[in-house]
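Good morning N.,

You mentioned wanting to compare the apo and holo forms, so I went ahead and generated the holo version with (2S)-2-hydroxybutanedioic acid. This is what I fed in:
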Amino acid sequence: MFEDLQPAPADKILALIGLYRADPRPGKVDLGVGVYKDRDGKTPVMRAVREAEKRLLQSRDTMTYLGLAGDTGFNTAMSGLVFGPAAEFSRIRAAQAPGGSGALRLVAELLKRTRSDATIWLSDPTWPNHMPVMRAAGLEIREYSYFDAASGAVRFADMMSALATAKSGDVVLLHGCCHNPTGANLDTAQWAEIADLVIERGLLPFVDIAYQGFGEGLDADATGLRLLAEKVPEMVVASSCSKNFAVYRDRVGAAMILAKDSAQADVAMSQMLSAARAMYSMPPDHGAAAVRIVLEDATLRADWEAELEEMRLRMLRLRVQFAEALRRQSNSDRFDFVASHRGMFSRLGLSEAQVERLRAEHGVYMVGDSRINVAGLPEDGMDAPAKAIVSVLD
Ligand code: LMR
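and this is what came out, ligand included:
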């Protein structure tokens, strides 16, 4: 049965976890997988989430099925968190999903059901798992230019020209904030231009928001998404709690639909839940229940927001310090964009060979496209990785 199978290629991001763990060098630096780390290199359980878990264990008297949409309180709370208090909730439906990837796939399955010949436009570059998820759902893929590696900025004019060729009914996947892998983000005026374009061309915006609270702040990071939601008749969203609630392994996300009206929202939701039933039936409960407890309790929520803000500010500080260290080591402003990028990632613009040399010769781990996770930078020793990076430049 399996004799004709070839081994699947390892996932380029997840493979780094094992490589890094197996590296015995004491000074190794992990800038690979997108996981938040504190000053000690740990990824702690957030205070409010820990408390919510305690309450959950004490109060839970059954583990019977919840239903295809998972925890409905979680879904309501997440819709509010993402769309904001002014949203038209009668047009919004949300389904708890197994992580951000599960939410992406669920939305992709809905798109396939509603438009069997749908083409989805992905940013070039984008998170490496976007393509396999969309392909697995049977969607056609095209790409729009997004990033200028030399300046570290968004190629907005090129992005708009590419999207101007999309045909009515095509879907545009946009990173809600903290673009992965580049760290270069759209500003509010650019989001407004995109909203006009998608309306004019009859495109469907699909926002992936996996890092809300890691860029400019919890509400600020949803500005573009909310601006779209105010203007467009329909849109879809995949959100993740992996990073901003640090519940990575519990797989917590939500797939959301904004429809033209409540009746259409109900129909779309029923199709999405039927797709869920065919893939995994129901999402896992624990992490989403803990997130719901945090979001529904004013004290826990305030503490979660405060801790999230500490994490965001730490990443900003690390960005500035690393850009300074790279300036010192390279005697140039080549990497200054690291300080102005937002979120967890920046893409440095190194070749795969240079990235490989960094790993082999210096124990500095980053994704092959030279994406770094700034949260992994050593706060007290920025010059060592900066020096290593400069040493592999041509
Ligand atoms: C990342 O981009 O590193 C994270 O989202 C982890 C993953 O699943 O790829």
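The mean pLDDT is 97.

Happy to go through it together on a call whenever suits you.

Best,
F.
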